[in-house]
Write the structure tokens for this entry.
Amino acid sequence: MAMIAQQIFGQMPDGRNVELYTLANDHGVEARIMSYGGTLVSLRAPDRNGVHADVVLGFDEFAPYLAQHPYFGSLIGRYANRIAGASFTIDGKPYRLSANEGRNHLHGGRIGFDKILWDAEPAESAEGPQLVLSHFSRAGEEGYPGNLSMGVTYTLTAQNELRLDYSGSTDQTTVINLTHHSYFNLAGAGTIHDHLLRLTAARYLPVDPELIPLGEQRSVQGTPFDFTVPRSIGSRISSDEAQLQLAGGYDHCWVLTERSGAFALAAELFDPMSGRALSVFTTQPGIQVYSGNFLDGSIQGKQGQRYQRHSGLCLETQHFPDSPNQSTFPITVLRPGENYRQRTIYRFKVDQQTGQ
Ligand code: GLA
């Protein structure tokens, strides 16, 4: 039976309860999401023999989520990815943001949407159980202009889809770029080197040593960034290609082909061993593919697992990094009276083929 259950997962330092919601569908897919950070804590999906595994990195308990961690399963905002120099200008007016990665702004700053307690309401919908999250972000937080009213709804459908619907409105012109930061590992353990990835992208955004886009949209053809046909993630990740060397693997935004806000396929990920497959659909113009390059075994995650380099893959649908400072990128400005709306679906299935 499709259902949603609720329990207390832990407490914030100020004593407020952190709730954990379990969304389940009739096919045994189960997503657990907590109100802190709107975080996807676990996602259980069957393999080709019907054996379930948790396919996202994270922790069994609440406490380590409060400590420093690399955005396991988090909602990211107000602005996902980097803003160079932690500053930008709107309509001639300069704004200074908190700098939390050297001199740059990363993932919404010191207290981004990953570190706040969202208001959470479980709901039943025709498509399946939902968790409706909302948050009011005050003007000036992390340096951003505008009081921002945010909503993010997770829906687990009967088609084994975890859908995220993002919405937002502001009372002053501002910038916005939300994403979801799960580290997927369809095998449930080990590295993602043998996973096959396909991206509907013919170009990507090369970056400087601080991982800020250069502004150029570079063709993937003939490079380790070509995933126009399924390729294993590990086959070229250690090549001496300069862009891979400076990021320690993939940590780049691909330019999704042929779109202007249309909802379309962005990525397909497949684990030949288990048969688990994941398709990602989105309205967003880009997808940041991050291969867990900063994981180094120092974090002890679920069931004592030490998360080594490349043990999870983030598929972060988003607008391009640093768009507020890049005149050739699609705009991320939100004005009063406009509605910010984005949708991303992570669809799970089982594939009998064993890959190539
Ligand atoms: C994003 C960034 C990475 C890194 C991770 C978190 O995916 O692109 O460079 O900051 O988040 O560790």
